[in-house]
């Protein structure tokens, strides 16, 4: 099964959208295999969004994602990465309400910045982003005995 990273951003958490988003996730066939609530600081947010460091909106983006707690989750299912991107909808929450009314960003997004949710955009970024927030050595450790000739 494929894994992807989801983040309910501060506007999603503080706007009380967490339960509705999780219900949508489970109804759509994803398993939530790991989750934690954290407060990002300026350094960690800048590092997470490093690909956008030269964009005009970078400082505003870092301020936004550090403005309150975020809920970080690893979601698993077949085709998790592209299916999750489809479920969250387009970047701009105000446009999502018109073009993708059933998307998560239509439900809780406000504009092109405050869009309440994140999803990894490729297998490479999913791997980077999951290990950015979670210790991925644990599941490998659990997998090892199954491959051992002793068992
Ligand atoms: P993520 O799943 O959060 O990565 O969103 P995305 O892939 O749909 O968008 P992208 O990676 O291009 O941008 C990352 C985040 O920066 C977005 O989710 C928005 O919060 C913010 N952002 C993107 N474009 C703009 C913009 O034009 N202006 C502002 N202020 N913020 C933006
Ligand atoms: Mg992105």
TrEMBL record:
Report the principal subcellular site.
other
Q: What is the annotated localization of this protein? A: Cell projection, Cilium
Keyword Transcription in record: no
Where does this protein hold ATP? Answer: 9, 57, 85, 91, 105, 115
**Swiss-Prot/TrEMBL catalytic activity:** a 2'-deoxyribonucleoside 5'-diphosphate + ATP = a 2'-deoxyribonucleoside 5'-triphosphate + ADP; a ribonucleoside 5'-diphosphate + ATP = a ribonucleoside 5'-triphosphate + ADP
* EC numbers on record: 2.7.4.6
Listed A to Z, the keywords are:
ATP-binding, Cell projection, Cytoplasm, Hydrolase, Kinase, Magnesium, Metal-binding, Nucleotide metabolism, Nucleotide-binding, Signal, Transferase
Entry GO MF terms: ATP binding; hydrolase activity; metal ion binding; nucleoside diphosphate kinase activity
- Where's the active site on this chain? 118 (pros-phosphohistidine intermediate)
At the top level, the lineage of the source is: Eukaryota
Keyword ATP-binding belongs to the record:
yes
**Where is the Nucleoside diphosphate kinase-like domain positioned along the sequence?**
1-141
- For this chain's UniProt record, which GO biological process terms are given? CTP biosynthetic process; GTP biosynthetic process; UTP biosynthetic process
Family classification? Belongs to the NDK family.
- What is the name attached to this protein's record? Nucleoside diphosphate kinase
Q: Which residues of the full protein are shown?
A: 33 to 183 of 183
